[in-house]
Hints:
Layout lengths: L1 E5 L5 E3 L2 E3 L2 E5 L2 E4 L15 E5 L15 E7 L9 E2 L11 E2 L12 E12 L2 E4 L1
Antiparallel strand pairs: 1-4, 2-3, 5-6, 6-11, 7-10, 8-9, 10-11
Amino acid sequence: MQLYVGHTTGDVKKGGRDLPANIVLKPIGIVISRYSDPKRPSDTHEKAAIEIHPEYEKALLRIREHSHFWILSWFHLMDRHALTAAPCRLNHHLPEYGVFGLRSPARPNPIGLSLVKLDRVEGMRLYVT
């Protein structure tokens, strides 16, 4: 996914530079995988496909020349109000921590970052692991 920054009338000054009050994310595609539950999958080598929206066809130029790339994603099904979580669902005796110190997808800005291996490209669909 691609990140776009938009300035608004609510910009704030920091060190003499304008900082945007809002950051706008514009989806460039969708991930297709076997997971329907927003909780973290146990298999980190699961195959998936990324269907890129047609208006970004030119952005895929020579994508096959790369073996890996980074994907920014938005965990749209997660609770955005959670500020604490336990680090592991398998051990209920662990204490809670603030979500900024964890890999929890439940956070105020539920942005995910994944390094994926490009397996193949078919049209506007990228198959990744």
